[in-house]
Each structure stands twice: as structure tokens, then as C-alpha cells.
Amino acid sequence: MFLVDPAQSGKAFSAEQAQQTIDGARREPYKTAEAFYASIAGDAPVVADQVLSDVRHTDARTIVGMTEALAAFDPAAAGHCYPGDALVVQQSRNDTPHSIARIAGYRQVHIDGAGHWIQLARPNEIEKLLRRFLDDIEA
After folding, report:
1. What are the residue boundaries of the structural domains of the chain, listed by start?
2. What's the Cα-to-Cα distance from 14 to each of 32, 50, 134, rounded to whole Å?
3. Which residues on adjacent β-strands are paired with residue 110?
4. What is the largest CA-CA distance in the chain?
5. Burial of 128: CB neighbours in 10 Å, binned 0-12, 13-18, 19+
6. How many other C-beta atoms can be found within 10 angstroms of the C-beta atom of residue 3?
7. Sign of the torsion formed by the C-alpha atoms of 7, 8, 9 and 14
8. 21 backbone dihedrals φ, ψ, rounded to 5°
9. Residue 103 neighbours by CB under 8 Å, 6+ apart
10. Which CATH superfamily is domain 2-138 in?
11. Secondary structure (H, E, C), the chain
């Protein structure tokens, strides 16, 4: 399994923070999503523009559902049931006790400065890591 900057556990946020975000998404889904995505987009304006454009074309119900799902996400449930090789490529700021890499004990590689959408900002680095990961599995 090759994961690129996967979501943190919903437990990374207090219940109050999570509820405020969900309430914001229900009231103003586009404003809430755009603010959140802009905050994690990183330093590549092209990536931020692409992601924010996609958000503007997303059904509001999807934004609300995604926000609720992220608040409830528990990577421990998924992480401990996968027995195979795994590599998590993420920002070092996401290497927290709430990270699936830490929870499940997966190997990690950190790529900083690219924001959440590392595969859009640094596709060549992701390709090299993926090829190396697949080569290691086949060896």
C-alpha cells in the first residue's frame, strides 16, 4: 500500500474544533472547504488553483459529507488490518501520533514544502518513490 499524505485521525482535533468545522461546512460549504484547502495547499500556486477550482465544482453535499467523514476518521481500524508492505509519503508536520504511519507502524518518507497534494506538486519525486517501493516488494 502506497499512501500519499493520508488524512490524520479525527482525534487530532478536539470535539469542539471538529464540530465548528462541520457546522461551518453545513452553513457555507464552499467557503469552509476553500479556507481549509488553501491552508494545506503548500507553496505551489498552480496546485492551489487547481484544487480550489475542483472544490468550486464539487456538490455542496459532498463537501459536508467529506468534512463529517474526516472528523470521524479512525486510521487505526484500517491500519491494523492490512498485513502487507506499506509506505506513507507525507509532510513531516503530519508525522504525529494521529498519523496512520505511526498508528500502524508503516514506513514513512517526508516531503516538505509541497503541501497536502504532494503528487501534484512533486510528481517526479512521487514516481521515483513509487517505483522504488514496487521494486522493493518484487525483490
Report:
1. 2-138
2. 18, 30, 37
3. 90
4. 52
5. exposed
6. 17
7. negative
8. -65, -45
9. 9, 75, 76, 79, 80, 97
10. Alpha/Beta hydrolase fold, catalytic domain (3.40.50.1820)
11. CEEECCCCCHHHCCHHHHHHHHHHHHHCHHHHHHHHHHHHCCCCHHHHHHHHHHHHCCCHHHHHHHHHHHHHCCHHHHHCCCCCCCEEEECHHHCCCCCHHHHHCCEEEECCCCCCCHHHHCHHHHHHHHHHHHHHHHC
- Per-residue pLDDT tens for 36-84? 999 898 888 899 999 999 999 999 999 999 999 999 999 888 777 888 8
- Read off the pTM: 0.87
Residue type, 85: D
In terms of Cα–Cα distance, which of 128, 82, 71, 137 is closest to 106? 82
Q: Is 40 exposed, middle or buried (0-12, 13-18, 19+ CB in 10 A)?
A: middle
Grid cell of 5 as nine digits: 499524505
